[in-house]
């Protein structure tokens, strides 16, 4: 079955909060960059979304939009995506955040923790995640890459480790990349991109939301990836929930291609290799490739003793002078006993 991939941005701002873009300028910039989907997440308001349907690119379906909001509080910033209504954030306290996340779920919204290790007060009040979540099943994704040059930031490493800690504790949480887009970027800026992976040839609002909710996406600094497990005429991909026995001795099929986004084509990428984990155990590492000048493929047969938990992949390499850094991070396939 053919799969289709769609680059999207899930964390963006306009003049309705602290961004410099008008709504139309943001959408035009997103289309120009190559995004197929966009979520507007202004601080503590969803007012800007009311303007989106009248923008020509949205009318023409050049880009699919969802509404959102970035809860901006003294104790953390939380992305709320596509809820049926705005849940009131003003009464949330560090010890009651679960109640409000649950309310977002009741409103059919998705919850993402934004930039959990950004510096806090007095530089950026509330940017650091200080909420005491009791049940991380209420969280759909953790933003492990935020803003530009995420490969250079210690905050990215901490957020990545934070996400892995939740996975290893049994929570089914995806990782996301947020451009946290406030204004036009300089030409030397790079950013993480979220790629949805779907079986549908046309992206719709429902497909966009479902892919985010189910973890059917990966994040990348540019290159695209196709990661599939094939076993007994069945295909499994990111976000699937399956029994361990259904993957044992299955074959991983992995393809990496150079970025298709013009703004990211000129950045140096070297010494690329693929990693696959079953929980915190590394079960495969490919040979290192000096460069990614064309399609790179790798096949690997899974062992017959997979542990319940998850299976996930990464691509690492040297990017713009940052050595041995994650280039692509895939969301898991979740394994049941």
UniProtKB/TrEMBL annotation:
It holds the Pfam family PHP. Residues 8-75 form the Polymerase/histidinol phosphatase N-terminal domain. It comes from the Bacteria. NCBIfam families: CehA_McbA_metalo. This is CehA/McbA family metallohydrolase.
């Amino acid at each position: 079955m053919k799969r289709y991939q769609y680059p999207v941005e899930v964390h963006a701002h306009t003049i309705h909060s602290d961004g410099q873009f008008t709504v139309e300028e943001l959408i035009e910039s997103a289309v120009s960059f190559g995004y197929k989907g966009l979520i507007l997440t202004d601080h503590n308001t969803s007012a800007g979304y009311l303007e989106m349907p009248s923008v020509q690119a949205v009318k023409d379906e050049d880009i699919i939009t969802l509404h959102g909001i970035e809860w901006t509080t003294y104790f953390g910033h939380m992305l709320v995506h596509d809820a049926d209504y705005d849940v009131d954030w003003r009464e949330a306290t560090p010890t009651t955040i679960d109640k409000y996340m649950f309310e977002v779920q009741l409103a059919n919204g998705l919850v993402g923790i934004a930039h959990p290790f950004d510096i806090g007060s007095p530089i950026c009040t509330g940017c650091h995640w200080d909420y005491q979540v009791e049940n991380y099943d209420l969280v759909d994704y953790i933003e492990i890459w935020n803003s530009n040059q995420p490969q250079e930031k210690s905050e990215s490493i901490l957020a990545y480790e934070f996400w892995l800690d939740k996975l290893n504790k049994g929570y089914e949480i995806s990782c996301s990349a947020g451009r946290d887009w406030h204004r036009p970027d300089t030409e030397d800026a790079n950013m993480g991109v979220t790629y949805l992976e779907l079986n549908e040839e046309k992206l719709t609002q429902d497909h966009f939301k479902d892919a985010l909710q189910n973890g059917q996406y990966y994040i990348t600094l540019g290159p695209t990836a196709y990661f599939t497990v094939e076993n007994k005429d069945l295909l499994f991909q990111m976000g699937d929930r399956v029994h361990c026995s259904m993957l044992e001795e299955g074959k991983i099929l992995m393809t990496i291609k150079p970025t298709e986004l013009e703004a990211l084509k000129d950045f140096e990428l070297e010494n690329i290799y693929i990693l696959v984990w079953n929980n915190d155990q590394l079960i495969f590492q490919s040979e290192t490739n000096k460069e990614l000048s064309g399609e790179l493929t790798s096949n690997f047969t899974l062992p017959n003793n997979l542990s319940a938990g998850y299976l996930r992949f990464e691509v690492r390499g040297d990017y713009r002078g940052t050595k041995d850094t994650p280039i692509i991070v895939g969301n898991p396939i979740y394994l049941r006993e």
